[in-house]
Design a protein that fits this description.
- With about 375 residues, the chain is an alpha/beta fold.
- It has three domains: about 70 residues, DNA polymerase, domain 1 (Orthogonal Bundle), CATH 1.10.150; about 190 residues, Rossmann fold (3-Layer(aba) Sandwich), CATH 3.40.50; about 60 residues, Winged helix-like DNA-binding domain superfamily/Winged helix DNA-binding domain (Arc Repressor Mutant, subunit A, Orthogonal Bundle).
- Helix content is about 45%, strand content about 15%.
- The chain is built from 18 helices and twelve strands.
- The strands form two sheets. Strands 1-2-6-5-4-3-7-8-9 form a nine-stranded mixed beta sheet, with helices on both faces. Strands 10-12-11 form a three-stranded antiparallel beta sheet.
- Helix 11 links the parallel strand 7 and strand 8.
- The longest helix has 16 residues.
- The radius of gyration is 24 Å and the shape is elongated.
- It starts with a helix and ends with a strand.
- About 45% of the residues are buried.
Length: about 375
């Protein structure tokens, strides 16, 4: 689609009452979106649009300047990808009522990568966070894009872990993707970090659109539709996580779920998915990566690439390596003669890199 066509397509998408289905009707009836923009109400009715909406379009577009709306996109380096273009995610085309267009900031090629959506609770547990970091890190390290919604909680943790793995992550937003509309505001820095590291922000909403309760179900269908599998970390009953999982089931995509504590409300949703046979229990990234035909041997990290380079890190690594059965953090602090905070940071870094593991009670072993 030419830029001129996208200018008028974007203008139509800013109108109230116009969504993907109506855009398809307009696209089918008129020779171009520019021609449609210059048409009268009766022509929109011929295209199949209701009479009331057809007159509303005429009233609304009198107040809209397509070129001015386009400049808003250019200001934020936002691109439009339509459903008939090469960069449109191929799996997303297969769902019911796929978005006619996507707004994209960042790396367009990220939309074509094999991907897994990671979803979960905003009110996560320490266990949920640990699972999310480990699984998201390993998935991204294996070259699979991590997709999430940039929300507080599991979403943001998953995307941060993917970046830590130097992988690719895509945020699907429930509002527009200009910086001033990104929500929650706490995650603006994370969004920018995603863009700086080869990822992308995507949405079907024009600039500016502030997310609301009505926009999130539509957002969830994109998250479920553009990936081969969805991973649920923690989910309370009647949560957005379960809505996304239901959509993934509807789209005949694979669902994975992490089991949790029987005493936690945040485990009810994931346990229900597993119990009902809707989700496969997942204990390690390899369980998920199998569907991408990635073998366990390909997932194993090249230890020489991720071994510690800094002298303090090397010392801590060697202490753990030579301990035999593992080493407690207090023993490491004592023998390394380093500050507790320094040792803690080193251990977190090495655990994220997959070269050591906390086997319980802050005892670490080399993997």
């Amino acid at each position: 689609m030419t830029q001129q066509e996208k200018i008028y397509l974007n203008a139509f998408n800013t109108l109230s009452g116009i969504g993907g289905q109506k855009l398809r009707m307009i696209n089918s009836h008129f020779e171009s979106f520019k021609q449609a923009w210059q048409s009268e109400a009766k022509e929109f009715q011929k295209a199949g649009l209701p009479e009331k909406l057809s007159h509303s379009i005429i009233e609304q577009k009198e107040k809209i300047k397509p070129e001015e709306e386009w400049k808003k996109l250019e200001k934020h380096e936002i691109k439009i990808v339509t459903i008939d273009e090469e960069n449109y995610p191929p799996l997303l085309k297969e769902i019911d009522s796929p978005p006619f267009l996507l707004y994209v900031r960042g790396n367009l090629d990220a939309l074509l990568m094999p991907a897994v959506s990671v979803v979960g609770s905003r009110k996560y547990s320490a266990y949920g966070k640990q699972c999310c970091i480990k699984l998201s890190f390993d998935i991204a390290k294996a070259g699979i894009a991590v997709v999430s919604g940039l929300a507080l909680g599991i979403d943001a943790i998953a995307q941060a872990a993917a970046l830590k793995a130097k992988g690719t992550t895509i945020s699907v937003l429930g509002g527009s993707i200009d910086e001033s509309s990104i929500s929650p505001r706490n995650n603006v820095a994370l969004a920018n970090h995603i863009l700086e590291n080869g990822g992308a922000l995507i949405s079907e909403y024009p600039v500016p659109t502030i997310p609301n309760k009505g926009t999130f179900p539509a957002r969830n269908r994109i998250m479920a539709g553009l990936v081969k599998a969805t991973l649920a970390i923690e989910a309370a009953p009647k949560s957005g996580t379960l809505i996304t999982a239901d959509l993934a089931k509807k789209f005949e995509r694979k669902i994975f779920a992490v089991p949790g504590s029987i005493f936690s409300d945040q485990s009810i949703g994931t346990h229900t998915l597993i119990k009902n046979g809707d989700a496969q229990l997942v204990g390690k990234a390899e369980d998920i990566l199998e569907i991408f035909n990635i073998s366990k041997n390909e997932v194993v990290k090249n230890i020489n690439e991720i071994l510690p380079k800094n002298p303090d890190e090397k010392m801590v690594f060697e202490l753990i390596k030579n301990s035999g059965g593992g080493m407690n953090i207090n023993e490491i602090i004592r023998d390394a003669k380093l500050e507790a905070m320094t040792v803690s940071s080193i251990l977190i870094e090495m655990e994220l890199n997959g070269i050591i593991k906390n086997i319980g009670n802050q005892v670490y072993i080399v993997i």
